[in-house]
Design brief:
With 171 residues, this protein is α+β, with helices and mostly antiparallel strands. It has 6 helices and 8 strands. The protein has helices spanning 13-22, 43-48, 68-76, 104-118, 145-148, 158-166, and strands at 3-10, 26-34, 54-62, 86-87, 90-91, 97-101, 128-131, 135-137. The strands form 2 sheets. A 6-stranded mixed sheet has the order 7-6-1-3-2-8, with helices on one face. Strands 4-5 form a two-stranded antiparallel sheet. A hairpin with a 2-residue loop joins β4 (86-87) and β5. The longest helix is centred in the middle third of the chain and has 15 residues, at 104-118. The radius of gyration is 15 Å and the shape is globular. The relative contact order is 0.25.
């Protein structure tokens, strides 16, 4: 097993985390706040005080089972990659999309993937491709929120969660 971690912002982190948790090859997820200006922010600060953080999911995965290229393709299924600072009904800088890397190898894979994705769209992509500057875990009540609150708000439709459960990497 080749364990790797990537940080993906896809709008509200509740649904994004739930989606990744359904994918075979994903080992762990944790929601939090990335690439902002404030150390250890709270949800209230991120939402109302303009800290510049993105709601982000730390995704630890088995790269032998689910290569980063395939994980990114799955990520694109749950975001509108052309939407600037908005996903679904959520609007604001904290709901931007982004792939935050920790190695130059990840950077190269993300860049190639986004270049290929751009060819599928006429509008420019709004997905950031940046090094991870910081990541602070969100409060406990946000972790696995949709498991704890199955009827909670989510911009991702239930059919995508089912599709994720049935996804077979490499096929």
């Amino acid at each position: 097993m080749r364990r790797e971690t990537i940080y993906l912002a896809g709008g509200c982190f509740w649904g994004t985390q739930r989606y990744f948790d359904c994918l075979p090859g994903v080992l762990e997820t944790e929601v939090g706040y990335a690439n902002g200006r404030t150390a250890d922010p709270t949800y209230e600060q991120v939402k109302y005080e303009g800290t510049g953080h993105a709601e982000t999911v730390k995704v630890t995965f088995d790269a032998d089972t689910l290569p980063l290229e395939e994980l990114l393709e799955q990520y694109y299924k749950v975001i509108d990659p052309t939407s600037y600072h908005r996903q679904g009904g959520d609007i604001g800088i904290q709901y931007r999309t982004g792939a935050y890397y920790t190695t130059e190898q990840q950077h190269a894979v993300i860049r190639r993937s986004l270049d290929a994705l751009q060819k599928r769209y006429d509008a420019p992509l709004a997905v950031e491709c940046l090094p991870l500057e910081n990541f602070y875990p969100a409060e406990e009540y946000h972790q696995k929120y949709l498991v704890k609150n199955p009827g909670g708000y989510c911009h991702i439709g239930p059919a995508l969660f089912e599709a994720a459960k049935n996804y077979r990497p490499g096929k």
